[in-house]
From TrEMBL:
The chain crosses the membrane at residues 47-70, 120-142, 292-313, 325-343, 372-397. Pfam families: Gate. It comes from the Bacteria. The lineage of its organism: Bacteria, Bacillati, Bacillota, Bacilli, Bacillales. It comes from Oceanobacillus locisalsi. This is Sporulation integral membrane protein YlbJ.
C-alpha cells in the first residue's frame, strides 16, 4: 500500500509539472533561463576548482595526511575520523553541495563508516563566503557589513550542529570496537599519505582527467536541480500554491514580531535560497534584524533545491538522508538564535561609528568577495563553456581508448 501511494504521488507531481509547463510556457522558460544564468555565471565556475582539487587531494593521499594529522581534534569534537576535517574545511570554503560530495567520496573509499559519513554530511554543507558576502550582502542588501553577522552565525551554528550530531548513531556503534586515541604525528601522517599515493597506479594525466570529468558531471547535475527548482518555484507562485502556503505562515509571524509581508519570501526561501533571500531583501521592515533572522534560517535549512542535490549525491552510497535533514532544522534554529544574540555586537556596533544615529540605509564597500562575485558574472560563462568542452573531449578520448 505504501509503495502504491508513492507511485501515485510521483505520478501526480509529474503530471502537475507537465500541465503547468503547458499552461505557463513563457514564464517557465524565463525562470529556466534565470536558473541557467545563475548556474553558468557563478555556481559552476566557483565550485569547479574546489571539486577538482578535492578529487586530486583524495587521489594523491593528502586527505589521508590530514586524517592522521587532525584525528586528535575531529574525533573528540565531532566523533568522526580526521579525514572529515577535509570535508569541513572544503565545505566552508566552497559551499554546498561540496560537503556531501566529499563525504560520499570518503565513504566510497571506506575512510569513514556509514554513521561517521552521516555525521560528516550533517555539518559540512555550508553556504560559501562568496554567496554570503557577494550575493546576499553586496548583491541583495548592498551592505557588506551584514555579511560578517550572517557568516559568523551560519558557520558557528553549523559547528554547534556538528558537536550535537556526534551522538548520532551511538547505539548502532556499540558493537564496533572503539578506536584508540591517536596523538599528533607529522611523520605518521606523511607515511599514510605516501602509502596511499603508491596504491594509486594511474598516471597523473589520467588522474587529472578523471578529476575534471567527475567534477563536471556532478556540477551538471547541480545545474539541472537549480534550473528545475527555479521553474518549480515560479510555477508554484503562478498556480497560487506558495501564496496559499504563506497564508498559514503569515498569522504566526506577528507573534514573532515579524511583518506578514515576509511570509511569501520566507516560503520561497525554503524552496530556493537565492530567490528567497532576494525577495526578503526587497521587503520593508522596521529593523534589519527581522530580515537577518529569516535569511539565517533559510541559509541553515539549505533550501529544498540544495537538499535535492545532496539527496542525489548520497543516493549512490549507503548514507541516509534523514540525519542530514534533521541537522538542517537544527542549523536553521541555532543560526536564528545566534543572530539575535550577535546582531548588536557584530552589526549595530560596527556601523555606529562617528555617529549617534543608526543608518537605516545600507553602506557599499569594495571587498574581495564582491570583486570575485562580479568577476565570475563576467568570465564565468566562458569558464563553464571551456570546461564542458574539455569534459566532452575527455569522454571521447576515453571511448576511443577503450
Amino acid at each position: 500500500m505504501k509503495q502504491k501511494l508513492k507511485t501515485l504521488g510521483y505520478a501526480g507531481i509529474s503530471i502537475f509539472l507537465f500541465f503547468s509547463l503547458i499552461r505557463f510556457p513563457d514564464q517557465a522558460l524565463e525562470a529556466a533561463i534565470r536558473g541557467l544564468n545563475m548556474w553558468w555565471e557563478v555556481v559552476f565556475p566557483s565550485l569547479l576548482p574546489f571539486f577538482i582539487t578535492a578529487e586530486l587531494l583524495l587521489a594523491f593521499g593528502v586527505v589521508k595526511f590530514l586524517g592522521v594529522l587532525f584525528e586528535p581534534i575531529m574525533r573528540p569534537l565531532f566523533n568522526i575520523p580526521g579525514a572529515g576535517s577535509f570535508g569541513w574545511i572544503m565545505g566552508m570554503a566552497s559551499g554546498y553541495p561540496t560537503g556531501a560530495k566529499i563525504a560520499a567520496r570518503l565513504r566510497e573509499e571506506k575512510q569513514v563508516t556509514q554513521i561517521e559519513a552521516e555525521r560528516l554530511v550533517s555539518f559540512t554543507n555550508n553556504s560559501s563566503p562568496l554567496f554570503i558576502f557577494g550575493a546576499i550582502s553586496a548583491g541583495f542588501f548592498y551592505n557588506i557589513k551584514l555579511g560578517l553577522l550572517l557568516a559568523v552565525c551560519h558557520y558557528g551554528a553549523n559547528t554547534i550542529v556538528g558537536i550535537i550530531m556526534r551522538f548520532h548513531g551511538r547505539k548502532q556503534e556499540k558493537h564496533i570496537t572503539k578506536k584508540k586515541r591517536t596523538s599528533f604525528s607529522l611523520k605518521k601522517a606523511f607515511q599514510e599519505m605516501h602509502r596511499n599515493r603508491l596504491k594509486n597506479t594511474r598516471p597523473f594525466g589520467e588522474v587529472l582527467g578523471d578529476a575534471v570529468l567527475h567534477s563536471i558531471q556532478t556540477l551538471v547535475m547541480v545545474g539541472g536541480f537549480i534550473i528545475l527548482f527555479s521553474v518549480l518555484i515560479k510555477l508554484l507562485f503562478l498556480m497560487d500554491i506558495t501564496p496559499f502556503i504563506a497564508g498559514f505562515i503569515e498569522p504566526v509571524l506577528p507573534v514573532l514580531e515579524l511583518p506578514k509581508e515576509l511570509g511569501l519570501p520566507f516560503i520561497s526561501g525554503l524552496f530556493e535560497i537565492t530567490v528567497g533571500s532576494n525577495l526578503i531583501s526587497q521587503v520593508t521592515t522596521d529593523s534589519l534584524l527581522q530580515k537577518a533572522m529569516l535569511i539565517s534560517f533559510i541559509l541553515g535549512f539549505n533550501g529544498l533545491s540544495i537538499q535535492a542535490q545532496v539527496a542525489s549525491i548520497l543516493a549512490k552510497t549507503d548514507i541516509r538522508f534523514h540525519p542530514y535533514f534533521f541537522a538542517r532544522l537544527l542549523h536553521g534554529t541555532f543560526a536564528v538564535i545566534l543572530t539575535l544574540i550577535l546582531y548588536k555586537p557584530l552589526y549595530l556596533d560596527r556601523i555606529v561609528i562617528h555617529s549617534n544615529e543608526i543608518p537605516a540605509a545600507t553602506v557599499q564597500e569594495n571587498t574581495i568577495w564582491m570583486d570575485i562575485y562580479y568577476m565570475l558574472q563576467t568570465v564565468g560563462p566562458a569558464i563553464t563553456m571551456i570546461s564542458l568542452a574539455t569534459a566532452i573531449f575527455i569522454i571521447i578520448y576515453h571511448r576511443k581508448k577503450a
